[in-house]
Design goal:
Layout: E1 2-5, E2 8-14, H1 20-33, H2 40-45, E3 56-63, E4 66-78, E5 83-93, H3 102-116, E6 121-124, H4 131-139
Parallel strand pairs: 5-6
Antiparallel strand pairs: 1-2, 2-3, 3-4, 4-5
Length: 167
């Protein structure tokens, strides 16, 4: 998909092997900014998104050829939602392109891709302090479920925190 921002073309492209380093750096930057830096196992998992063995898809957002963000949709199954559901695990834009409508465009793109993947319900999580993002998500139809998201780590994911390459 191609759109425009500041008279530069904006594209959304499915991640391939050649995008792994770019996606890795974007993911590290996002998770540092969001207050939960990635551990080495999480960084290594980025490469899995270039293949199709796992039930997830990732797209790189480019503006004028420069990588400025990404979105990841993980797929699962839930009878409550009628079968296949999905979860936007990451949605990130670099700070210099925010506030220009690209977030809304990226979110609309993610919703359309989820529908084309046969996903019946799409979920996401937002940090409690990120009220601006929550308003954006609600404005296009996402709603608070009233439930708490919980987790348990099943494997030691490592301790050290990587930094983006070249940063």
């Amino acid at each position: 998909m191609t759109t425009q921002m500041d008279e530069r073309p904006v594209t959304f492209a499915l991640v391939t092997d050649t995008d792994v380093a770019v996606l890795r750096n974007l993911a590290i930057a996002f998770h540092i900014e969001d207050g939960h830096p990635l551990n080495p196992a999480a960084v290594d998992a980025v490469a899995q998104l270039a293949g199709r063995e796992i039930p997830a898809r990732a797209w790189i957002v480019r503006c004028g050829g420069d990588a400025v963000g990404y979105v990841i949709i993980a797929m699962s199954f839930d009878i409550e939602y009628g079968g296949r559901d999905g979860f936007i695990t990451d949605l990130y834009l670099t700070p210099h392109v925010r506030g220009k409508g690209l977030g809304r465009t990226l979110l609309a793109f993610a919703v359309s891709q989820a529908a084309s993947l046969g996903i019946r319900t799409l979920h996401l999580e937002v940090e409690k302090h990120n009220e601006k993002a929550a308003r954006l998500y609600q404005s296009i139809g996402f709603e608070d479920t009233g439930r708490s998201l919980m987790r348990i780590g099943l494997h030691d994911a490592g301790q050290s925190v990587p930094r983006p390459v070249g940063k």
